Hints:
Helix content: under 10%
Shape: globular
Number of domains: 1
Strand order of the largest sheet: 1-2-3-4-5-6-7-8-9-10-11-12-13-14
Structural class: mainly beta
Number of helices: 1
CATH topology: Porin
Order of helices and strands: HEEEEEEEEEEEEEE
Strand content: over 45%
Largest sheet: 14 strands, antiparallel, barrel
Low-confidence stretches: 1-19, 21-26
Amino acid sequence: MKKFYLLVLSIIISYGCSAQAVHYPVQIPYISLGAYSGNFTDAFSFTCNQAILSSQKSISVGLYTERRFALKELNFYSLALSFPVTSGFIGIQLNYFGYTAYNESKLGIAYGKKLGKIADIGIQFDYNLIHITGYGNTIALNGEAGILLHPAEKINIGLHVYNPFGGNLGKNTGERLASIYKFALGYEASQQVCIHVEIIKEENIPVHVNAGLQYCFVKQFFAGVGIETSSTSPYGCAGLRWKNIRVDLAATYHLQLGFTPAVVFLFQGKNKKQE
């Protein structure tokens, strides 16, 4: 019974106390840090801003898994794949959150393209499936879009919108997906250090901030720290790179619900300059 109450409470806190369902990825906020840095971009960066796809140079694959608040009922898995096409890059995102009785799945297909030297754009279309035992399945479609601006060599400015036109969860539920707007700034102090600030406005939720810093000690090892202010949750991560493979360990802490551990596996294909 204790686990059941924790499950309900964690879902409420994760999605926000409003009448509208959020149902967007619940992963640790540190994943978004690479979306606004040319030196720290990885396979998951486009899931936070699709415009970063245009900056990638080779095929990239990532697998993310977390156990939110150390509850197996709140396991989250995500697979990200990006690869080049003739005029840009394609990204594919697969998410699964929950357990047998309640789970959410998402398929996202994204495209990113450069608009000259100072701007990149990207879009994504999402197919969401929510399953509740005894109530069947609910489907919702929505879109995302992002833009990246490069006003200076070390500065990246990002705008991202999630579900700008709304979207109902099924025909008769009365629920709808919330809209989310983000403004982000990434500053690359050097090739080893990047500072990231993301201002987030979620529908019916006060503005909050995700701020973090990543530091690459040597080519093979890096670490990062940050905080997400909506629940005052600090987070940290450390990664080890071997050739084109990287493994990250990460964790975040919620004052009421405790720790969320996570593991990330990343593969980056060789680009022409490496071959």
